[in-house]
Amino acid sequence: MSKLGNLGARLYRGDIGYDFIGKRKLWYGVSILITITAAVALAVQGLQMGIEFKGGAVFTTPKTSASVAHVQESAEKASGHEAVVQELGNGGMRIQVSGVDTAKSDAIKADLADDLDVRAADVNAELVGPSWGKQIANKAWLGLGVFMALVVVYLAIAFEWRMAVAALVALIHDITITVGIYALVGFEVTVGTVMGLLTILGYSLYDTVVVFDSLKEQSKGATKQTRWTYSEIANRSINSTLVRSINTTVVALLPVAGLLFIGGGVLGAGMLNDISLSLFVGLAAGAYSSIFIATPLVADLKETEPSMKALKKRVLAKRAAAAAKDDSREGDDPADTAGSEYEEDEEPQDDATPAGAVAGQRRSQPTSRNRGRGRPSGKRR
After folding, report:
1. pLDDT (average), residues 123-142
2. What are phi and psi of 338, to 5 degrees?
3. Residue 13: is its pLDDT beyond 70?
4. What is the pLDDT of residue 6?
5. Which DSSP state fits 293?
6. How far apart are CA 179 and CA 185, in angstroms?
7. Confidence of residue 323 (pLDDT cuts 50, 70, 90)
8. Mean pLDDT, rounded, of the chain
9. C-beta pairs of 36-43 under 8 Å, 24+ apart in sequence
10. How many CB atoms lie within 10 A of CB 373?
11. Which residues contact 168 (CB under 8 A, 6 or more apart)?
12. H helix or E strand, kind and range, residue 48
């Protein structure tokens, strides 16, 4: 078995683990800081909307020896507007100019062909009206609202309303970070960006649902035992699914990274940049929020219940009593306490107690002192 497989098995059994829930205030602080940074970038710099939303023209030239800077200068001089130029994989140029009508488009096309020393017939021009982009944006907002409503209803039925609320908060967190990254790096928001944002909604919920399913299974009958609080059971759920979350996230990020850094950066494919950046940031943010935001938030909401408060009180009282017994044993004669190790051990685990131990703690099952009593010696009859 590989080292990662061994690690996953040890995390699942509770042999080792990290206290994610115990440090939840730190994760909340980090997430709030990232979200505020994204919101400030969005408010100050804003989003660079593509011509699909502003209207304009897109010119595609054949292979040319001119540089991107020269083509941009030529396009801005011919149009009188700011131009966005991208070099294509075949050596051609893709030029976007906003606020251009049909008559002006023909003049710009002729000037570009003359300046780049290519035939005007080889320069392709496409006009885009702002109303089309507005329709796409409205439909995207409608789809986002419907999706979130269905997610909340489904999670509330399949799990419980607290998990639905936590998943919704994590989803809003992921979308805010993704949009903020677009504002920071200055990538254009195009139809491809909208497609990418809608795609990451499902991905960002995938790891969250995996952890919630494990938490639901392990917390059955939680109030019937006195070994662990609900937060500790939630922490156990995160650790038991941690390696799986890492594996699925890395496998999903690798092809997206290929699209972003190779397809977009090397080949210069504009649409690949728009889709891949939103996917890459959304996938990473979704994996982060499922571990550091959604599950700790469920634990906080759940422990406001009277039954969970009472459970936590019983668990802490039992541990305090066990610690007091351990302190009293230190002054006793070892001969007097020999053979009583398991008589004062904590009570046996209830059938409803979740399997495994609290993350970071190992279980030890005492050997029964009555094992073998009443059994005849010698061969079996």
Report:
1. 77
2. -65, 135
3. no
4. 67
5. I
6. 10
7. confident
8. 77
9. 37/180, 38/176, 38/177, 38/179, 38/180, 38/181, 38/183, 38/184, 39/176, 39/180, 41/180, 41/183, 41/184, 42/179, 42/180, 42/183
10. 7
11. 148, 151, 152
12. strand 48-49
193 to 117, 136, 179, 200: CA distances (angstroms): 34, 11, 10, 11
In this structure, what token pair is assigned to residue 68? 């991107």
Over 70: is that where the pLDDT of 283 sits? yes
Q: Which SS3 state, helix, strand or coil, does residue 253 take?
A: helix
Rounded to whole angstroms, the Cα distance separating 381 from 363 reads 37
Assign 291 to helix, strand or coil.
helix
Residue 230 has pLDDT above 90, yes or no: yes
Task: Please name the amino acid found at residue 361.
Answer: Q
Number of neighbours of residue 371 by Cβ within 10 angstroms: 7
What's the pLDDT tens digit per position in 195-226?
788 887 777 788 888 889 989 998 888 888 88
Q: What is the DSSP letter of 292?
A: I
- Rounded-to-integer distance, Cα 276 and Cα 368, Å: 59
- The total of other beta-carbon atoms located within 10 Å of residue 39's CB is 15
Per-residue pLDDT for 303 more than 60?
yes
Backbone angles phi, psi at 127, to 5 degrees: -100, 140
Please say whether the beta carbons of 163 and 298 come within 8 A. yes
Q: Determine the Cα–Cα distance for residues 189 and 96; give it in Å rounded to an integer.
A: 13
Alpha helices, H only, the chain: 3-13, 24-44, 51-54, 68-79, 102-116, 130-158, 161-185, 191-218, 230-240, 242-257, 270-289, 295-302, 306-329, 334-337
Exposed, middle or buried by CB within 10 Å (0-12, 13-18, 19+), for 275?
A: buried
* 336-359: pLDDT as tens digits: 444 433 333 344 344 444 434 444
How high is the pLDDT of residue 361? 44
CA-nearest of 296, 176, 192 to 234 is 296
What's the pLDDT band for 3 if we cut at 50, 70, 90? low
Structure tokens at 36: 């505020």
Q: Are 11 and 17 spatial neighbours (Cβ–Cβ below 8 Å)?
A: yes
Q: How far apart are CA 123 and CA 105, in angstroms?
A: 11
Which residues face 60 on adjacent strands? 94, 124
